[in-house]
Amino acid sequence: MDGVITMEGERKFTLPVDSEHKATVLPILSAAKPHMLAFHLSWIQFFSCFVSSFAAPPLLPVIRDNLNLTATDIGNAGIASVSGAVFARVAMGTACDLFGPRLASATITLLTAPAVYCSAITDSAVSFLLVRFFTGFSLATFVSTQFWMSSMFSPPVVGRANGIAAGWGNLGGGATQLIMPLVYDLIVRIGATSFTAWRIAFFIPAFFQTMAAFAVMVFGQDMPDGNFQRLEKSGDKPRDNFLKVIYHGIRNYRGWITALCYGYSFGVELTIDNIIAQYFYDRFDLKLHTAGIIAASFGLANIFSRPSGGVLSDILGKRFGIRGRLWGWWVFQTTGGVLCIALGVVGSLGASVAVMIVFSVFVQASCGLTFGIVPFVSHRSLGVISGMSGAGGNVGAVLTQVIFFNGSRYSTELGITYMGIMIIACTLPICLIYFPQWGGMFCGPQPNYTEDDYYLSEWSEEEQRKGLHEASMKFAGNSKRGGTRKVDSATSPAAAPTPV
Prior knowledge:
Helices cover 68% and strands 2% of the residues. By secondary structure, the protein is mostly helical. It has a single domain, classed as Up-down Bundle (Growth Hormone, Chain: A), CATH 1.20.1250.20. α1 (35-53) packs across α7, α4 runs antiparallel to α9 and α7 runs antiparallel to α14. GO terms for molecular function: nitrate transmembrane transporter activity.
């Protein structure tokens, strides 16, 4: 799993790599170790966690009758399902910085799997809320997914790597809208009562999540050159100072803006996953299975929408630098806000479905565009910045559901309209993001300020004398103009797979 060592001692990989041994291509159909194997393990694990976290919403019409849930109970459970991951995602970012994405992600996935199994024995509104709360912790694997991709893929392709891995993981939010009703119907046909069938159905996502965690633990690898523990023991990767990693993450204002904006792209996606099946079921008097299929189309759009945001970010970065990435992010997320308003206003079934599908493309692409920026904010505190941004998504979901979808204060359609206004307003701070070496949306770069200057500022003179900054300098060299630099491969395989 550590690659092939040549006679001269130089590491040789299946894929072309840069000076940090990060892959410079992303051949989707490949499972080459360690880059593409990490890619596939990360999105499959995240997919399983999404399936588990949103297994309940498509069965809510049955669950609410069995447990006598009120609208407030359902709203609180939906909030609980995304609130737990707020702190888990921040912690996950730090854990990735210190222990590596493989160990951090597999651990949280295994620890939360019992909560999914316990969904089968809930008997009250309180216990239902608790299992959704603890299951939601597993969504912290998003942070490890993004950290892992940023550790394995070079800046010119990191946007698409992040976008595709997270998008295919988010696909679980749509897949579960199909899977759970189908499993439920199958169990009923076998002979179980409806109130027993929904409970048995939860064993499917629970088992899937458990197996995904073991696969990551056994087959995964933290970095191109090996796992954190081995690299630290060999001296190839110095152990960083915990407090300084945290400090340089939270002091970077760009991370706070990405967190806010992600709150109204991914946060909106989480909110829709929680409400959309019941919305179509109640408003248009549909059958449970039909409402589930329509709701699934929102999440299933992630198969191409979020990845397209990552790919677009890389294309804009190659053509216009970081300023192009920022403009693309703002345009797509603002358009998503406008479409969200339209979704709340239209009154026919056909128009609602059509607007929802287009809306899903823009809001999910915005998620991919967000994490086309995140890897450039900080190299030393990449995990912290990823954790802050990921947690921002959950905070946005919690606030939105508390304000607009908790109880009967607003109708669901009016809540959706107001959510669209929030998206537009909370996207405006993107214009405040400025990188002195690259510029911002409206301003160019500072004269004579380089990538080395920016990433070196995270290290003290004493740390530089010890050579602790060397990895950051390699990243600086590979991130010219925000991912436009054509990186020379450290290896040149004779027959590298065709990049996507």
